[in-house]
Structure formats: structure tokens, C-alpha cells
């Protein structure tokens, strides 16, 4: 059930019962349940409104937050503790972008805004671009970057603080390129298909494989570094 209430400014606000939220999200998350949503609330990840009788009412923002949580669980295998920290931090927008998946549409920013968001110098950003870590789109001579490129620049800057320069950070780009090339071989026939349903299925496979590949890369890296620590 969906209800409409009036906000303090007189604007109408659509609110949804927990059952309506389940039905709405079941197509993307077949295992969603009322008990699971209640559990996420108990863990401090959701805070829906309550009626006088104690019934939960979810706003559109609540539903959007729930979708972000579920996608981060499904696609990036993040534990609830990490998801909670992400949503509480200034990087919450980054979490939403990641949760949007491969097919998600991103806004574009210019070099100046990228540097401001990542806290890096223009010189450092140009070095990252030189070694393939940043990939702008050039329009009328202006470099435009997806918002997630600022996240990449920020991550590179964090590693650079330990004395690793942009040239050596290229190793991460090379590894990612090899992984994406392998996955491309798997889904390319479907992506090139003229059949809309087959193409949609291929995009879904691409999104899923991206998440699993990221998990595998993280597990392998952790194993190797654990061996370094034990030497």
C-alpha cells in the first residue's frame, strides 16, 4: 500500500508500507522479504517513519537507500558494517554510483572539479591521465570525466602518499585491463546481438561478472599480502 502525506511545506510525500516495498523490489531482488528489511533496520541501516500504531512507512529516499544497500551486498559482497560506514560518510554518493552497476549513467565533471573532489593537484591528475588511470572524454577541446574518475584519482592519491608515483600505479590499470578483456570475451556475443532481450541479459551478466571479478581480485590480493605479512 502507498499513502500520501503533506510535508511542512505543503508538498505531497509518497510513503510505502513494508509489504509494498517488498513487492516493488522483488523483480530485482527475488529473495527480499519483510524480515530482511526489518533486520536491516535493526542494524541501523534504515530508519523508516512510524505511524501511531507502529507501522513502518518508507519514503522514496528510504527505498532508494534500501536498493543501494541490497546492490552493494549482492554485487560487491560488502558486509553490513562496511555498508553502514559508506552510507554515513561523505562518500555515500560514491556508494550509490557503485551500486548503480555497469549500466548506470554518471554525470560528468571537468578537470577542476575532479581535482577538488579528489583533493589532488592538476599536475597529479595529468600524470594519472598520461598513464591511463584517468580516461576523459574530450569535447570541444575540454576534458570531461565521469564522476567515478574522481574516486579513482582519490584512491591513487592515497597510495601515492606512500611514495608510489603515477608511473607505478599503472600496474593497477594494466591488471584491470586484463580482467575486463577476459570478461569482454564472455559477454561480447550477447552485447553485439540485435535481440533486445539477449542484450539485456548480457548486460546483467556483465554487471554480475564485474562484482565477482572484483571479489576474486580482492581475495587474491589479500592472500598475497597475508603471505607478505607472515614472512
Total DSSP helices: 10
User: How are helices and strands ordered from N to C?
Assistant: EEHHEEHHHEHHEEHHH
Strand content: 5-15%
Number of strands: 7
Helix content: 55-70%
- At CATH level 3, the topology of the largest domain is Multidrug-efflux Transporter Regulator, Chain: A, Domain 2
Judged by helices, strands and strand pairing, the structural class is: alpha+beta
Tell me, briefly, the overall form: globular
Query: If you average the pLDDT, what whole number results?
Result: 86
Strand arrangement across the biggest beta sheet: 1-2-4-3
Outline the biggest β-sheet. Answer: 4 strands, antiparallel
CATH class of the largest domain: Mainly Alpha
How many domains? The number is 2
Task: Report the span from N to C terminus.
Answer: 59 Å
Commentary on this structure:
With 231 residues, this protein is of the alpha+beta class. It folds into two domains: 2-99, Orthogonal Bundle (Multidrug-efflux Transporter Regulator, Chain: A, Domain 2); 108-230, Multidrug-efflux Transporter Regulator, Chain: A, Domain 2 (Orthogonal Bundle). The chain has ten helices and seven strands. The chain has helices at residues 18-25, 34-42, 60-76, 80-88, 92-99, 111-118, 122-130, 147-160, 166-191, 196-230, and strands at residues 2-6, 12-17, 49-50, 56-58, 108-110, 137-139, 142-146. The strands form two sheets. The chain has a four-stranded antiparallel β-sheet. Strands 5-7-6 form a three-stranded antiparallel β-sheet. A hairpin with a 2-residue loop joins strand 6 (137-139) and strand 7. Helix 9 (166-191) runs antiparallel to helix 10 (196-230). The longest helix is centred in the last third of the chain and has 35 residues, at 196-230. It is globular. The protein starts with a strand and ends with a helix. This is MerR family regulatory protein. Residues 27-89 form the HTH merR-type domain.
